[in-house]
Write a sequence for this structure.
């Protein structure tokens, strides 16, 4: 561009001054400006395309991260729901167990008391029948009354043994329950180390 180009001109006639260099230089400047403008536009387009591609990449990455976070949160929520359901089920099972246990205890108590009462009343009846047999001098009735008294004495011993066995069992259960409650109170629930 620094080189000047020479043009042969017709020198016959009036002379005129022509400034080609300036026009050429302005044309060259315009061309250069257009090239610079075009190159800057291309660079801007490339930058916007890069920015767009970066934005698209970031958007895709962000969406993927959000989707993974949502999946993890759903898993945590489902896990918490299962845990709550398991706790409710365990509490209901424990309550049913305790209800059945109290029913069995009350039935057992009632059964033992009725058994004992029945044996006592039968012993009283057998004693009366033995006294009547003695009063009437009926040997066969005396023998039957003694057999009944012997059988009822054995049943009475069974009732007493059952009652004692039941009382020991209740004491053992109370001792076990007291031991179970002490460790439960001493050990509070520890947070999961992964949660920290």
């Amino acid at each position: 561009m620094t080189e000047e180009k020479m043009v042969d001109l017709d020198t016959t006639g009036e002379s005129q001054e022509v400034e080609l260099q300036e026009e050429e230089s302005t044309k060259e400047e315009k061309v250069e400006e257009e090239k610079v403008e075009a190159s800057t536009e291309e660079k801007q387009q490339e930058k916007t395309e890069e920015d767009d591609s970066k934005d698209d990449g970031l958007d895709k990455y962000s969406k993927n991260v959000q989707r993974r976070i949502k999946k993890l949160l759903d898993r945590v929520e489902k896990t918490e729901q299962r845990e709550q359901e398991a706790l409710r089920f365990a509490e209901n099972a424990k309550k049913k167990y305790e209800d059945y246990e109290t029913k069995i205890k009350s039935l057992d108590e009632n059964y033992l008391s009725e058994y004992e009462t029945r044996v006592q009343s039968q012993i009283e009846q057998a004693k009366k029948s033995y006294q009547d047999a003695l009063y009437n001098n009926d040997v066969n009735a005396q023998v039957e009354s003694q057999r009944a008294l012997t059988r009822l004495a054995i049943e009475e011993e069974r009732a007493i043994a059952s009652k004692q066995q039941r009382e020991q069992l209740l004491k053992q259960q109370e001792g076990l329950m007291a031991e179970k409650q002490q460790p439960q109170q001493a050990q509070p629930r520890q947070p999961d180390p992964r949660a920290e």
Remarks:
- The chain has two helices and no strands.
- Residues 131 and 142 are 8 Å apart (CA to CA).
- The helical segments are 20-136, 139-186.
- The radius of gyration is 55 Å.
